[in-house]
Amino acid sequence: MKKISSSKLLLVFSTIGLLIYSVIYACSDNGDWGWAFDSNFTPETFVDKSYAPLFLSSDVFYGIGFDQEHNTRFNDEIVADWSAYLKGSMNEKDVKFFLIDSSAADVIKLNSFLVSKKSNPTVTKWSKKINLKDKKVSSFIVFLENAQSLEKVSVNNDYWSYEPQKVIYFKDVNRVKNIEKKYETTTDLFLKNRYWLLTIKANFYSNNKQSAALFFNKTETTVAKNTLYYRALSYLAGLEYRNKNYAKANYLYAQVFDKCPPLRVVAAYSFHPQEQLDWNQSLKLAKNNDEKVALWAIQGYYNNEEQAIQKIYELNPKSEHLDYLLTRLINKQENKIDKSFKDQTVLQNKNRIKDSITKSAVQIVGAIAKSNATAKPHLWNIAAGYLETLSGNFAQADQDFTIAESKMPKTVLAINQLRLLRFVNKLSKIDKINSSNEKTILSDLNWLYFELPKENIENFRYENAVSWSKNYLSTLYKSQKNAVMAELFSKDSNFYDNAVNVDSMKSFLLKNNKSIIENIGSKIYDLNLSDINNYQAVIATYQNKIPEAIAFMKQTDSLQNVVFYGNPFNGRIKDCHDCEHAERQKKKYTQIEFLTTIKAMQDKINSQEDIYDNAILLGNAFYNITHFGNARIFYEGNIIGYGSSPYSFKEKTKVMITNCNVAKMYYLKALDAATNDEQKAKCNYLLAKCERNEFYNKKYYAVTDWWQIEDDKVNFLAWNGFKNLKESYSKTKYYQDVIAECGYFNTYINQ
Q: Considering the domain boundaries, does residue 87 fall inside one?
């Protein structure tokens, strides 16, 4: 598997050790694009981005899959901190080089100089940029050298492995002691804080891991509660988990989750109560409500958002943890909805949605929203309104949205989120479309279908509302017997099977005075008059109504000039769709030329002119436009569809494109007109191909289930054409050609 590489942070700021001495392994597609099509509620709208990986996801973490920032999570913060510390002594570019981009070699050689005072080429190079005599610069180099010594055990470069990784210990006891001594002796508070964390890490990766906990407990009260503190605390949590002190481990991870946003993913992943007893003990360890809130914040991620929300609200209604849990709760409710819109009426659909929504969730969110006690009441009002919409309480939803609008920040995402949910509520009120209520949704439909795709608002989920609204309107129009409008908003695969529908759609598309909503429907519809005329031309051709087909084909604009890949009038011994396409064509036929040539040949037959040649060519033409021939391109289109197998098409089309009756009719006509054995031999063989295809149609293509197909005990069937060819025309050259090319026939005559 591909190894994922990342920039090494020389200060060993990886958090791999937090995860109970293991590396996170998996393959991820790094994305949750599917949620945009399943949801109307965008969690990114109001929730801090530090919670983003914890949004509801089908993957391990939303948007990222597995966490892959073990070595890089704090890079930006560390570069910023050291740059500020070294300001005036070293520029940020060089600071970043040493922290992230450099090899260990430069640091080792510079540190060697600081110890021995003996110059080397590396010193010469860097002396032009930095003052190694500067106290802060030299302290920086010394710190880096100590930090780098831990890299071989703390920095992970192989995330893509399913095999357990061998634990490597840091065995340089003197180094561990030296790092701790640096902590004890330095008076520089900035350096002291970093040597403190480095001491914990050095002990953590040593053979005596428990010494990390002892050092932490001894010095904890002297350390500021900053990022470094909570990073150290996460190591302590890992130690507790290793020692099977699950209650304590989860308690510590909860504190990390609460106070250090960059580590929320790590804390959440590592938080796992083994049983209810562990969970109860973790709660008992909590010293105050904030610590209890933190525990419930992670517990809700894994188990029950509804319960966690209730508990957190009771403890601290202002907690921001409530917000991300709310988004998960809403998205879960959405996820329960059947998106198929299989109902015959919109009322049935709304009732089915209502029945799928958890009533207690609606009550809890609504009650909290009414309290106005949360840190972001507008979020709760919007969520409450949306749940009311899904529950069929449209008036209450309107009230909730109005309250939300008065409180919420006027960000692009927030404004569009509110408008989207208001639209969903607005459309959901409509049980029968008329000129009055359609006016209420016209501007929103234009916005949803045409404006939003151009705006490309990051993270905004609106695609689900697009598909839902189309299905909703289509169902409304269908119930009101308006087949055309129903088709415009949601295509029915059987719509064009009805000739009345075909004519009605063509009349509609030609209509000049369309209403606003009719214009919207025609704009979102991806078929045009050319597609319909082409469809009619194809259908007429298979019905052998060639004058009609020509008339329709002439109205297809550029489609009539589509060129066949192979010669549609060729009749081959062996069917090979792609082989014929690869051959050089003396004459390239367009669709319209194909039809006009057929018409000319039919006219000659009707005039009793060269019946054999024209009939055999017509048989080939109608054979080639079946699935078995070289001209499948003729029937493929935006209405009929595309596919290399008959099973790619609906039943009616499948029957049409596998039927060789018209070809068979012309081959029989050619046989009647044949004047010599060579011609008769050819006709019989081509008729045998039609017989074979008819057998295939009945045995394979007509079944709806592969299990219906029985094993054929007879491998080589005696088609009538084969019999006639063998019995009557074995002395012809064509007979020998068939033997040479057709293995099936060769086996048949020799079995």
A: yes
